[in-house]
Design a protein that fits this description.
Elements (H helix, E strand, L loop, with lengths): L10 H30 L4 H22 L3 H5 L1 H17 L2 H4 E2 L2 E2 L2 E3 L2 E3 L1 H20 L6 H21 L3 H17 L4 H20 L2 H11 L10 H13 L24 H34 L3 H25 L17 H20 L14 H19 L8 H16 L1
Antiparallel strand pairs: 1-2, 3-4
Length: about 425
Amino acid sequence: MAVMLQRKPDYPLLTAVGVLIPLGLVMVYSASFMRAYADTGDQLYYTGRQMIAALIGTAGLLAAQRIDYRVWRRFSVHLMAGALFLLLLTLILPASMTEANGARSWIRIGAFSMQPSEIAKLALVIYFADWLSRRGEKLTNVTYGLVPFALMLGVVCGLVMLGRDLGTTIVLVIIAGIVYFAAGANLLHVIGAAVVAGGAFWGLINIAAYRQERIAAWIDPFAHYQGAGYQPVHALYALASGGLFGVGIGQARQKFFWLPEAHTDAIFAIIGEEFGLIGTLFVVTCFLVIAYRGMRIAGRSSDPFAALLATGITAWLVFQALINIAVVTTLIPFTGLTLPFISYGGTSLTVCMTAVGILLNISRYAGNPSPGEIDETVTDTARSRRAASFARLAGWWRNGRARVSGVSRRRSTQRAWGAIRRR
């Protein structure tokens, strides 16, 4: 069995995440202490729970960073089955244990609570990365590619939608669509699926009156101030009050019971109020770093499963952040989604940090070792493997797109190995 050479983990990615998490803890306290005191008598209630989640997430990140990413492939079906079971539980258990803000998306047992849809995001990425990387050329066939892919995605999204969580459904569809496209799917199939998904999305909006109200409030939030426009209007007030440099940490006014969900869905608005435009651009820059480093890891991965897994995790974290920011700035209609690593939410923070750990582990195998990163006593066999990796990486970029399941790259790898042996 060939031994894969390990690099150091991707430190720029780790730095970006390491900056966002403590920033999130500070902002959760700043945005929630008044509500926490009013609800529980303890102004550190939400901050304390978030800190516990950050510690658990740190353990998850460190553990996932040490576990070979290929281990997750063995349990992809088990993880998907477990996520589906948890999503089903949110519909079976009493509403008092599962409902929050009109959506049945939680499981609460005493002091313990979790959000299965967050776990489903990671399970979906791992499952589709495994399944799509095994399809090979069959992926371009409707019967073997698009239909089973759409059925599995439909089951997951259907369970989430039965819990009235449209925001999470959108994220799941985006993640799955990007991974499917990166796997080398037929572009016409992707376009057709996007049209169908768009039609379904429009139908879901039209059959629910409260979603139509959100669309109307998005078009003119001030005209619907007493209803669905209340939260968008106060989010805009917060952003406008911050100006260029903000009013100062802890000095935001909208968090004093004006802006609903200030510590969760709308925390980006509080960042804008307290740190101004500079603060919001800093957060956006951190997510741009995550996007660049994540896609770089995917592009440098010679293993199709690793490439798709890195693509899915990166798409999930970045697009969820993009949607949250777009919602707060009223670029799109309001929907409840957390800002990864920053918003209050223990399950979200823990799962996102674990996903970053997996991405860091993939980065240790992506590409090739740089001088000084591995032991200097490298054997001739290891050098041969390194040369073959260079050949695979060159073939990857020549393909123009991450068609990770193509036969052509396997043939080019075989030719590279043949050239090495002839030497």
